[in-house]
Amino acid sequence: MAVQSTTPVASTRPATGARRKPVRAPLTRRQYLITSVVTFVLLLAVWTAVSTSGLVRPLFLPSPISVGEKLIDQAVNGQLWTDIAVSTYRVMVGYLLASVIAIPIGVLCGSIPRVEAAIEPIMDFIRYMPVVAFVPLTILWVGTDDSQKVLIIFLGTFFQQVLMVADAVRRVPMSYQNLGATLGLSRTKILVRIVFPSALPRIWDALRISLGWAWTWLVVAELVAATEGMGYRITQAQRFLETDLIIGYVIVLGVLGLVFDQVMRALGRQFFRYLKGRV
């Protein structure tokens, strides 16, 4: 007669009280900050090692020290601050002008099917056109002053903004609008009091992303017929093979974009604090 083994078999199931760590486990603010700083330090260390090892000529990759010294020279003679002020002015005027026009058009596209059918295909068509190709036309249209630079930045952000705002509006649950209709609100009041406030957090994210595009188009805007600005200085440095100045100004552009992005994030957290409690 076979004797049944009484040895307990190890269970493959986790203990009842054990909890698996989720894939996207949240970090504390301190952990996030430390990780970001360490990443930047590592990149700087790799850059320093490559540029000082002799593997790459300084003409192609100058050292961080050389770039820093060049930026200090530009800051001391005042050129850096002038370029930053001029470029920031151009970016903000073009971006704000595009946003003011794109938001209402995007809201209408996302909420009224007939407006969507009339406008969105055109927006989709134009947004694939390279903005660089419009540079000669903008010079013919508005000349070579700041208006031309602002127009390039406007063209680079406006069409994308319309589509992103429309998408944000379409994500508002239809049940919200049905509730407004049940309460007897008109279509205009439903749009103004329910749809737009509900879509506003996503619209803000769309504006934050498009602000990064505005900074990207700045260099294109300042390529032709400019006498000041970050893009103009980069173009001039290219002619004289001043690689350290080019990299320095590119870094400054990145820092400016990062600062504006963090300001938008902070404002979004303040404006939409009620989203913290949502799951």
From TrEMBL:
It is found in: Cell membrane. Its main location: membrane. It is a multi-pass membrane protein. The keyword Ligase does not apply. Residues 84-264 form the ABC transmembrane type-1 domain. InterPro entries: MetI-like, MetI-like_sf. Residues 1-14 have a biased composition (Polar residues). Residues 1-23 are annotated as: Disordered. Keywords: Cell membrane, Membrane, Transmembrane, Transmembrane helix, Transport. The chain crosses the membrane at residues 32-50, 92-113, 125-144, 150-169, 206-226, 246-268. One of its GO terms (cellular component) is plasma membrane. One of its GO terms (biological process) is alkanesulfonate transmembrane transport. Pfam families: BPD_transp_1. Gene3D superfamilies: MetI-like. Belongs to the binding-protein-dependent transport system permease family. This is NitT/TauT family transport system permease protein. It comes from Pseudoclavibacter helvolus.
